[in-house]
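Example (one chain per record):
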Amino acid sequence: MKQIGFIGVGIMGSSMLRNLMKAGYEVHIYARNKAKVEPVIADGAVFHETIAECVKGRDAVITIVGYPQDVEDVYLGEGKILESADPGTYLIDMTTTSPSLDARLAKEAADRNLKMLDAPVTGGDYGARSGTLSILAGGEKEDYEACLDLFSAMGKNITWYGPSGCGQHAKLANQIMQAGIMSGVCEAMSYVKEKGLDPEVFMEGAAAGAGQNSLLQAYGPRIVKGDLDPGFFIDFFIKDLKLAYDSAAEGGLALDSLANTVSHYEKLSEEGFGRLGMQALMKYYEK
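Predicted structure:
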């Protein structure tokens, strides 16, 4: 596997494809706005004006776009991925999207002799840059195993969860946990601030306690500094959390804590903060 098509050159995708190039892969990209991807072109990515040109002749095609509609837009229709990729190509959707959508796309891909995996990631902008993402895969196990070297260029914790859609279910479960932890971090930091404690001393002490967690380590210092720049946009986090809530509701699960966190994030988005990082949840508590 040498030539990779890549669609979705955003905060995460640009770092992921750079790691693929560092590992020796030839990466071909498509983007609607060439000017926005000039930095990765300068680093060696091959730009194409159409999706069809990007995916033809590739060993694998990776997508990491924004919303379920964006996934449908790049896979379905004339000149899109399913129509344009060569038979036998591995298609890897690394977007966090609807499990049922990726399962449906995998069936349509199989009908065209294409091999599709859902493989959403977690680890944020740091994990994408450092090549330490966790990759949560679903699909045929032999296809997953064939793509392990490719995954290893972008991540370290790589797990197969089962048939198509299972990688997405695992990612949504991760987002449910992350939502609860981020709420806890922001509430704790708000309490620390209101009671006049030194937040840096608190974080140092908490690092040795049962409440220690990776989100406090990663985002606590940013919160203290007022750094709300995105590693992951609030609007994208809302999308993930609503996908999780809807998927849970299909099975009769009521996730009350998740619903509460979603409502807080939606309020921030309505107030114009949707392009800040998810640690900007602190703004809700500061009010």
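Caption: Residues 3-164 form a domain with the Rossmann fold fold (CATH 3.40.50.720).
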